[in-house]
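ESCALATION

Customer reports they have been waiting on this structure for their group meeting. Please prioritize. Original submission:
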Amino acid sequence: MNVIELTEHGPALSVPLEDAVGRALAASRLVEAAPDPFVSGRWRVRAAGKVGVATLTEPNAQAVTLRIVPKVPVTRRLFLLGYSLDAKGWRNEDVRLDEETELLPALAQLFERQAESALRQGLLQGYRTTEETSLVVRGRIREADQIRRQHGRLMPVEVIHDEYTPDIAENRLLRTACDRLCRLPAGIARDVRGRLLRLRVRLSDITPVDRGHELPTWRPSRLNARYHKALRLAELVLRGASVEHRPGDVTVSGFLFDMPRVFEDFVTVALRDALTGGGGRCALQATHYLDERHAIRMIPDFVRYADDGTPLAVADAKYKADKPEGYPDADLYQMLAYCTALGLPEGHLIYAKGNAPHTAHRVRHAGITIHQHALELDQPPAELLAEVRALAQRLAPAIR
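Update from on-call: job pushed to the front of the queue and completed.
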């Protein structure tokens, strides 16, 4: 099996690949891939905003494993990922990962510890609603289904009943996340993998969620409180697991995070938290329209509204600048459209810190100022949140 190791935002690597595999990589959009113009039989491969591990299998060709390493230290990544799940979730806990430096092994280790803690008192049980065709009447008869399916026969009976069982949403999520982590092709230490396998044995009677099926929902409560941290990690694992990608017979499976989306979630949720209690409300990914006929849709990442629904502030998160000399001009045009349609005198673009400081542009003949901010991600969580709060204060004058 070929292994291609890439670094987030790193340079393209020239690697030997069969043409079919190179084309499949390009079609998957997991990375940027193109034939090397200077060397026959080689492809230039570059990371494209995702981090993690994925294996691509092409019929009649050797499998290729991608390992994309994040630039920001792993504890910072776990902190950011926590915001993509729950603003009041596990993100503030003291993550102790010994000498682990890569995201996926660290996440696997953290999940195993939290799941083991959750199951220490045994498997949680609960009631699950089941519909089935039975020879015994249990619960209630589904009359409409009985008439439609049995055509007047007395037996079998279409019934619905509540069953007290450990095969509930919480345990199914843990089992499925454990399965996905166990299937990671490389990078997890042998002792961690062994503990994950033992965890899967404890969950062996639980039904896993098949690929492509919607994840079961769960609600935080006093009864499942000991599961909360493990469940949030399980959802993180399952949302990061790449779906099967099949252009033809090509299969891509693995564990990948879309870092632009993770950064967007962090910025918008952290801003919302910082502005809580100041009146009005905040909306993430709210739909607006540029034109009066509502034909041109816009979806700003973050909009602050007054109590009567009047827009007060708008912000958009951008994971990185695309040009080495500074921020992309297209972002300015996008924010100008947001401010114009929302009737706002200021707009805010928020970047993961790259190569340009905060700046502001006053648009000619429009009376609109567009601010560009940069967050330094490689700093302790408390300092990063303090930077977000300071940024929120720049939006606050329009709210008072």
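Sent to customer with the following note: The longest helix spans residues 259-275.
Escalation resolved.
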